[in-house]
């Protein structure tokens, strides 16, 4: 973990600062701070997952990936392995999966294995936001120039 990431975690967990306050204080984008907190702070990820679990959907692009019956079969199979497998490691892994799934940790496994650099993320997001603002300003200027031309030719 980078020192900047540790600073964000400390500000959130030990000082009780909000992600918005941390971003303003350290000069980062709010989304980048939340990404780092989600990756490294169990406190933040537990709060975020508690809110997100109620809204969790099993559909992608309005197409159901697994039906309700399929989900029930999968859960029953994992539970059966957890309770009745003769191999201890299989029972342990099935139990671990069930606990992690209930707490929403399985969704974060890939995210936690990544190593994000808050400075690079924040700089990239700032540059993208500035580019978008420049494009909007240019579009306004072009529209205004067209109005001026239309008025002059009328």
Concise structural overview:
With 154 residues, this protein is mainly alpha-helical. The chain contains eight helices and two strands; from the N terminus they run H-H-H-H-E-E-H-H-H-H. The chain folds into two domains: 94 residues, no CATH class; 60 residues, no CATH class.
Describe the model.
The protein has 154 residues and is mainly alpha-helical. It has helices at residues 3-13, 19-26, 30-40, 42-53, 68-84, 88-103, 109-113, 118-153; strands at 59-60, 63-64. It folds into two domains: 1-56 and 117-154, no CATH class; 57-116, no CATH class. It is 75% helix and 3% strand. α1 crosses α3 and α3 packs antiparallel against α8 (118-153). The protein is elongated, with a radius of gyration of 24 Å.
Whole-Å distance between the termini?
A: 64 Å
Which residues form runs of ≥5 with pLDDT under 50? Answer: 52-63
SS strand fraction = under 5%
Please tell me what the overall shape is: elongated
């Amino acid at each position: 973990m980078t020192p900047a990431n540790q600073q964000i975690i400390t500000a959130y967990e030990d000082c009780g600062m909000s992600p918005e306050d941390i971003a303003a204080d350290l000069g980062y984008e709010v989304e980048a701070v939340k990404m780092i907190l989600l990756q490294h702070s169990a406190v933040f990820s537990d709060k975020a997952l508690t809110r997100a679990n109620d809204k969790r959907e099993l559909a992608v692009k309005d197409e159901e990936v697994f039906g309700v019956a399929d989900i029930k079969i999968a859960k029953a199979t994992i539970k059966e392995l957890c309770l009745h497998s003769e191999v201890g490691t299989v029972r342990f892994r099935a139990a671990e999966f069930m606990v992690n799934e209930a707490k929403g940790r399985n969704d974060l496994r890939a995210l936690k294995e990544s190593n994000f650099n808050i400075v690079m993320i924040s700089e990239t997001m700032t540059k993208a936001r500035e580019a978008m603002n420049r494009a909007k300003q240019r579009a306004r200027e072009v529209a205004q120039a067209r109005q001026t031309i239309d008025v002059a030719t009328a």
